[in-house]
Amino acid sequence: MNGYVELTNGQVALAGLLILFNGAISIGLRLQMEPSLLLASVRTTVQLLLVGLVLEWVFRLERWYVVLAIGAMMTLIAGLTAAGRNQRRYPGIWLNTVISIWASAWIVTSFALLAVMRDTEPWYDPQYAIPLLGMVLGNTLNGISVGLNTFTEALVTRRDQVEAQLAMGASRWEAALAPIQHAVRTGMIPIINSMMIVGIVSLPGMMTGQILAGMAPVEAVKYQVVIMFLVASATSLGTVSVVLLSFLRLFSNDHQFLHGKIK
Amino acid sequence: MKNTKAMRHSGPSAELEAKGLHRLAGERVLLDNISLSVHGGDRIAIVGPTGSGKSLLLRSLAMLDPIDAGEVQWRGESVHGRDIPRFRSQVIYLQQRPALVEGTVEENLRQPYFLRAHRDKHFDRERVSRLLSSLGRGDSFLSQHQRDLSGGESQLTALLRAVQLDPAILLLDEPTAALDSDSTAMVERLVIDWLSEMPSDRATVWVTHDDEQSRRISNAMLQIHDGKLSKDVHERIR
User: Fold this and answer.
1) Which site among A157, A255, A257, A259 would you substitute to test the B interface, given the most B Cβ atoms closer than 10 Å to its Cβ?
2) What digits encode the pLDDT tens for the residues A17-72?
3) What is the ipTM score, two decimals?
4) Chain A residues whose beta carbon lies within 8 Å of the beta carbon of residue B89
5) CATH code for B16-98+167-229?
């Protein structure tokens, strides 16, 4: 199980031919998706090649501030994407998603680098820090996005119930508790589901990649288990954090539901 | 107090007092420096055209909406922050559309006792039965699911949920606007029965479009127009 088959550009291009099937389906069923397919294929190739080049440069430099800068940029984009996916907006939503994803992903990734994989030298070794952060960010983004969407939607659809609670003497926390619980639960369901079926229904991409690259399957599995735990905890932290920050924006200290802020 | 100085007060001091409530939406004035006081024994009707600020005034009295200026006092003390849930347990606002939680009528009636502001009280099934029986309803009503209730029955449940908590003041925001005459009569009956238990201690502020209703349920009337309470329009009609 040593080494891996190094792919030539021609072999990558050969795999790209498979997209022609999609094109044929699109033409056959008159889906008119050929331009999108072409664009998506080109973007996949170009974006990943660029990432590869950037990572090679970062790995070669091995400077802590470059790793942090790359990590910060990834986190910022993830935070903005999480807010952008939300169907509803309120003032401060961008800041809330960025803070939530930043805090949760960085706490968990730091724990992984400094405590779990403490043999990495230096601690910011980009070979570990950047892929780990990337995996955590990608999944946390989903949790935050789902949690935030569920929370704002629940507040809009249950506005009468929330206000009826407040009107009878509920504190803002008591009035918002049901939507908070609903949002956090919904945000965490996907990661719990994927933890349930991992290895049975699906083989995670990271583990598959490591096995293809020549790592012993059991070693690859250990990495995957660690990743699943990191992702689960970061998703929980991120979801709880974005829902609580949203709660503080949308309920005043005077126990008022500021429903007018949600657009 | 400029808008209500002609109003006679039945108690020594106001229970609920709004001072200079002002609310803006951009340039538009929604509530224009409104002051009024509510005492035990008051049955106030607030009337006015659609969009005049009736509901907003009532919600502001319950401090459910932020205001740009002014304050609400309860028994002489300014209300804000952590005092508000306790204040709202005494001054309950009832919305036009009843908002019930999933479950039976009884589960809805029990629900407020889980709130911190009502933890020192407990659900009194006998009392609720008595209230229901005075409205010609049996105990079987308690086991009905909220999904199966008519609009009138839902509003009755929401009102029962509020009055069983023994507030001092009920702020009623057109509670019968969407109801038929029988349901309206039942809701009015329940409010009048509740008031008659402690007539000089309890009060209602009732927003209505219906002139006939305002005469039936009030002993004082205030008119609001473009966010202003009109002077000298309140009258003792009983």
Assistant:
1) A255
2) 999 999 999 999 999 999 999 999 999 999 999 999 998 998 888 889 999 999 99
3) 0.90
4) 168-169
5) 3.40.50.300
